[in-house]
Write a structure and sequence with these properties.
With 312 residues, the protein is α/β, with parallel strands linked by helices. The strands form four sheets. It has a seven-stranded parallel beta sheet with strand order 3-2-1-4-5-6-11, with helices on both faces. The termini are far apart. Bound molecules: nicotinamide-adenine-dinucleotide. The site of nicotinamide-adenine-dinucleotide (NAD) has 27 residues, from helix 1, helix 4, strand 5 and strand 7.
C-alpha cells in the first residue's frame, strides 16, 4: 500500500495515479491548501489532513495498519516565492511536517521517500550536480528542503526506518501550476496558446534540467519497490537553455514565439543539470520521456483546459 502525502497536488497526483494503474492500494493525505480534490485520481482514498497536526494523521494509521506500507512524502509549501513570503509556515510544513510524517512511518513500520529539490544545491559549484556536490541553498525554500533531508535521515537512523530523499529538478507536465510565478515551461506553453509574447528574464542562456512528471512518479515507485536508501537526483542529465526551450515550444506548438526581454530576476541561478547515475544504479530508473514529447503532452493537456479561439 502506498500513502502519498501531497497527493492532491501536481506531482503527488501522478505518483498516486501510477501506483493505482499498477494495482496498488493508495491513500492520499492532503490538506487541500494548494492541491485540489479533482487532482486525486479515482480509486485513491483521500484523507484530508494537515501534516503539521500529528493527531490528524491518526486516520492514516487506522486505514493502513496491518499492511506493508510505503510513504511518498510530497506535501509541502512547494513554491519558492510563497516560502520566502511565509517563512515560518514553510518551515513548519516542510520541516516539522516531515518529522510528523516520519513518526507515521515509524508507527507503520513503513518505507519513506521524501520529495526533496535541486534547490538544496543553490548556485552550483560544479556541473553536472552530483548528490555529493556542496549544498548551499540560496532560498528559504531550499533551506527548508535541506533541513527536511537532515530530519529524514536523522530520524530514520534513530528509529530504523528505511528512507530516501529524491532531489527533483525542474518538473513539468499535466496538472502543473499556473500563477504569476509558474514555471518557464508553463509560461511558454500558455503564451503559445494565447498568441502572446513570452518573457525571457536575462539573456536566455540560463539552463535547467526539465524532467517529465510521469518519469518523476516512476522514480518514487522504484524507490518504494526497492526500499532504496540515500539521496538521489531525479532529472534527465540533459541541460536545456531557456532559448532552446523556447525554440522547442515553438516547434511543438507550431506558434513562432518572439520573446519580450526583461532583466534577470534576483535569486535565479545560472545553470543547472543533474548527474543521474546514482538513480540509474540504485533505483534502476531512467527518464523515458524526451523534452519534446513531454512538452507535446503538456500542451495537449493545457489545450483541454483553455480551448484556443485565436489563431496566430
Ligand atoms: P503542489 O503544491 O502541487 O503539491 C503540494 C501538495 O501538498 C498540495 O496538494 C498541497 O495541498 C499539499 N500540502 C501543502 N501543505 C500541506 C499540509 N500542511 N498538510 C497536508 N498537505 C499539504 O507542489 P508540487 O509541485 O506537486 O510539489 C510536490 C513536492 O515536490 C513538494 O514537496 C515540492 O517541494 C517538491 N518539488 C517540486 C518540484 C517542481 O518542479 N514542481 C521540484 C522539486 C521539488
Amino acid at each position: 500500500m502506498l500513502a502519498v502525502t501531497g497527493g492532491a497536488g501536481f506531482i503527488g497526483s501522478h505518483v498516486a495515479e501510477l501506483a493505482l494503474s499498477r494495482g496498488e492500494r493508495v491513500i492520499v493525505v492532503d490538506d487541500l491548501s494548494s492541491g485540489g480534490p479533482t487532482n486525486v485520481p479515482r480509486g485513491a482514498q483521500l484523507v484530508v489532513a494537515d501534516i503539521t497536526r500529528p493527531e490528524q494523521l491518526n486516520r492514516v494509521l487506522e486505514l493502513a495498519r496491518g499492511e506493508e506500507v510505503a510513504i511518498a512524502h510530497l506535501a509541502a509549501v512547494a513554491s519558492v516565492v510563497e516560502a520566502s513570503r511565509f517563512p515560518a509556515r514553510a518551515l513548519e510544513v516542510n520541516v516539522v511536517g516531515t518529522a510528523n510524517v516520519l513518526e507515521l512511518a515509524r508507527r507503520l513500520d513503513a518505507y519513506f521517500a521524501l520529495a526533496s529539490s535541486a534547490a538544496v544545491y543553490g548556485e552550483p559549484s560544479e556541473l553536472p550536480l552530483k548528490e555529493s556536490s556542496p549544498t548551499r541553498p540560496i532560498s528559504l525554500y531550499g533551506v527548508s528542503k535541506l533541513a527536511a533531508e537532515h530530519v529524514t535521515f536523522s530520524l530514520a537512523a534513530e528509529h530504523g526506518i528505511r528512507a530516501s530523499a529524491l532531489r527533483l529538478f525542474n518538473v513539468y507536465g499535466p496538472r502543473m501550476k499556473p500563477g504569476p510565478y509558474a514555471s518557464v515551461v508553463y509560461n511558454f506553453l500558455t503564451a503559445a496558446l494565447r498568441c502572446e509574447a513570452p518573457v525571457i528574464y536575462g539573456d536566455g542562456s540560463a539552463t535547467r534540467d526539465f524532467v517529465f512528471v510521469v518519469d518523476v512518479a516512476e522514480a518514487f515507485l522504484r524507490a518504494a519497490e526497492r526500499r532504496a536508501t540515500g539521496v538521489f537526483n531525479v532529472g534527465t542529465g540533459r541541460e536545456t537553455s531557456v532559448t532552446e526551450l523556447l525554440d522547442l515550444v515553438s516547434r511543438v506548438t507550431g506558434v513562432r514565439l518572439e520573446p519580450r526581454r526583461a532583466p534577470p530576476r534576483p535569486g535565479d541561478i545560472g545553470r543547472s543539470v543533474a548527474d543521474v547515475r546514482l538513480a540509474r544504479e540504485a533505483l534502476g530508473w531512467s527518464p523515458s520521456v524526451s523534452l519534446e514529447e513531454g512538452l507535446r503532452r503538456t500542451y495537449e493537456w493545457l489545450r483541454t483546459l483553455t480551448p484556443s479561439t485565436r489563431t496566430c
